[in-house]
Amino acid sequence: MRNKRVFMLMIGLILFIAIIGFSLSDRKELTWPEKVLRDTSGYVQQWFYKPAGYIAGFFEDIRELNELYEENEQLRLTAAAYARDKANYNFIKNENERLKEELNFTEQQKKMFDYNYLIAHVISVSNDANNRTMSINLGSKNGIKPNMAVTTVDGLVGLVSSVTPFTSTIMPITELNESSPTFNSIAVTIEGREDESFGILSSYNKDTGRLVMTKIAENDKMVIGDTVITSGLGGVYPRGIRVGTVETKQVGDFGLTYTATIKLATSFDHLTEVFVVQDPQMEEQAK
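Given the sequence above, the corresponding structure tokens read:
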């Protein structure tokens, strides 16, 4: 009896499953309990899906931010390296152009005069308003002697005033003063008319930033814009060194001679390198 009931129960279960499967295969629409069940499950799923999507997006944004940060850091390093390389390139380029200019200057001067030029670096500048001297890194061990002229590519700087074995002090022409015990007037002439023009640079006007040229003859043909160079007279400054250009010319105090103002060819604001002029003729005369 028990086996018969079990057998009948299994047959009924199989028939029930078959009927449900058959009814579902033929239906095109769901029953209202099924619809409620599906809607309910969908509504619940969206509340789980949205936070999960937000969390996944949040971590994705963090990953992208890290990538952007690393990329920006790399760009900063690249930009810094470019700026450094560009600065080095500009420095080397300017240094190369400056050295070429100085080389051309010395070659041109050697063709004109038998001078030797010793390149020196300015290592200090005095802040004393009454003694604006500067020091260079060459001394007696390098052949530097007092009263040697100092110049740049542009023009005259001054004279060597004192020497130690490894350094020298330069008295610039901006300290020209007739009342100074170390005063050395500069005999000058006009480039291209050396036999027709003559004058003396006697002082420097610190208010105007100009040299004062005196003892200009009444019949001197000097005109504004002429280039003033050293004449070599006096045995101190070698001849042919550019000093500046004539800016003004006027009658002197007594009306017999003229005076002129000379604009310096050299800028003293940022002197870094100078040339000490060795004149073999003057050295022979000194012996």
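The chain has two domains: 31-112, 113-286. Try to locate this feature in the token string yourself.
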